[in-house]
Design a protein that fits this description.
Rossmann fold; globular; 10 helices; six-stranded parallel β-sheet; Pantoate--beta-alanine Ligase, Chain: A,domain 2; three-stranded antiparallel β-sheet; alpha/beta
Amino acid sequence: MQKNILFFKLKVIHSKEDLENFVKSCDEINFIPTMGNLHDGHLNLVRESRKFDGSSLVSIYVNPLQFAPNEDLATYPRSLEADIKKLELLSCDAVFCPKNDFSSDAPRLIANPILAQKLCGISRPHFFDGVISILSYFFRLISPKNVFFGLKDYQQFLIVKDFLLKSNMKITIHGVSTERETNGLAMSSRNNLLSTHERDIAKNLYITLCDLSKNIRNDTIDNLKNNSIKKLNSLGFDVDYLCFCNSTSLEEVSKFEHNILVALAAKLGSVRLIDNIIIK
């Protein structure tokens, strides 16, 4: 149900105490966890949340638990003032942007290794444990009715869905389609770290995925995979993985089947990019 946007004012929350007071004032909460530097992909999550009864709450928190010592925590793009203005225009009800790091308050949890020790979890073994630890902490603080995630981070979506199911939290998770730039590049806060030239090269990730979708019935998966990796590396990428997986279990497949997830991660310069498509 769409809400009346007249006389709207976004509530900006910085402390845990103010967050608890906001939660108490709401009948239901639709929660969108982010790390900020908001783009249209994030804003689509907010728009989707506005279709549901209740209050829309965005969190902006750059979670240190999901960064390894050699990763880009210090350089991760931050734009809080601009983010708040974007949320005001969407009539989001509140944004939680804590001023202090409270990651030490969050109990350390282990993401389901069956899902987490694949794809991004191979080169970033710390990552999904850090995600789940902070999200669980947020979920218990906020008790949302609905939570919204972009499907660009498809593995993360599956892991959070699995966690919610096994923890018996009464939270419904919603996956929202990937938002893309005009050249096809999946929107990501890290895109801001790309040069103009790199951004033009980066479009080849999605082009590759689309080509694989067209050709998967005409060649072996091994050939398609090897040729695509060679081509991407020749364009300047350093490919981390290109995997053809079952879209539910993330188990790799060696021949075509319905609902294959084709997932791709690669570095371009110092920037790590991910993308995926599902082939029906």
